[in-house]
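Figure 2 data, in text form.
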Amino acid sequence: MARGFFNVPKAVNEPVKEYALGSPERAEVLATYKEMFHSNMDVPMHINGEEVRTGNTKNIIPPHDHQHIVGHYHTADKSHVETAISTALAAREAWSSVSWTERATIFLKAAELLAGPYRARMNAATMIAQSKNVYQAEIDAACEMIDFFRFNVQYMTDIFKDQPASAPGIWNRVEYRPLEGFVYAISPFNFTSIAANLPAAAALMGNVVVWKPSDHQAYSAQVIVDLFKEAGLPDGVINVIYGDPVMISDTVLASPDFSGLHFTGSTHVFKNLWKQIGNNIHTYKTYPRIVGETGGKDFIWAHNSSNPLQVATAITRGAFEYQGQKCSAASRAYIPASMWETVKEHLITQTNDIKMGSPEDPSNFVNAVIHEASFDKIAGFIDAAKTDKEAEIIIGGGHDKSVGYFIEPTVIVAKSPTYATMTTELFGPVITIFVYEDTAWEASLKLVDESTEFALTGAIFATDRYIVEKASKALENAAGNFYINDKPTGAVVGQQPFGGGRASGTNDKAGSAQNLLRWTSVRLIKETLVSPTDYKYAFLGA
């Protein structure tokens, strides 16, 4: 029990290392990459602090070198999932009762370990198994994860300080209890920091977790587990399982003690899980919390008052960083006819300068997409555009999976604003551009707003403040994270809490107190200091 009102260390964003030529961090991460690439990691499941190996394994391969095996991970059957649930519930009483200062210390320690001795290993794992270049890995796997841990601790204390008023003779107070049961965390392949935060945010608030990382992130997930263990996270608080997602979810969602879902992934999967929870609602002891960040078809809209070079740079960075495998990646753009040729020239110049290949070479800006299914989907849309009279590929269009799943940065110009690649989430290095007549800028905003079911991120470019104001109003429901004169990616914890609406999720804003509040159940306590002894109120008279 805490014996004092403690102030946690003020959260600050972790500085992003540049990995410049000759820098010590560059040498360290490349040496770590080489060592890990030529090792073979055995990734177990983790249930009640025990390493569980079933012998039913799947290989881990780098997307940029799919004939090379860097490890394997063990998969669960139903009994392992049931054990993970029962283990979590058994750990709940002790974990939910432990002082908030102890929970805070664990994640603050994890942040410091990651900022120091774990940094190169976490980044190298992300580079190898998710094919991220060193700078993208640094932003994600190191800095953003550190920021999640530090800022979540600060937000937790801010939440605890939010207390009701008390009338004379009364003391009102609220307790922010953990949920009554366990939380199910499902994390995607594309961000190592998200993989860590989904279970960690719930655990910090006193909850126990069954965590299913993406199979394509098992490699970096193991490093996260090692980090949590060294930071002092008790056994059973976060249990990690791999395997058949349908079987795992069916087993988890059938439990009466299921109390929350923390999800990042596809819109289709999230909707199906929501439906499944609804169908099982009479099973549960409590109403489950459902928090999800899902798909996006994120936009860049430019007005003719904008700077063409700035627009082109936002497209190049927003669409092609990490091969477009960000929920926030720019995937469609609307450019006025009067400036299109200038934007196009800048785009061609910039894209021609991009190198593509293995992340082991830091000069490669673009690496491989995550797996063959993703490659085939994206390549199929590109090839369809090559023969479609309604579209023109002006940049890129090449793809090759002989060594790794490489797709060239590709720019498609569509004649119709509802062309397939203008409305379908591709999750790859492809952006489709629709050129509109300058006088139709208001109508083009309507297209931006109504062309897709998503509302995750979006960006507008204009120097005319009247236009900025009108566009911001017209698109107020089109993006949960809205950017003015910047690309629609790169949300920073503590600065730009992240999430979207419509088919893009519940907009519970990871990286803010709003998300943490979802993993609490508030208990109001009213204590009357001197209780009345007469039932009569004044209006009744003497």
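Caption note: The two ends are 48 Å apart (CA to CA).
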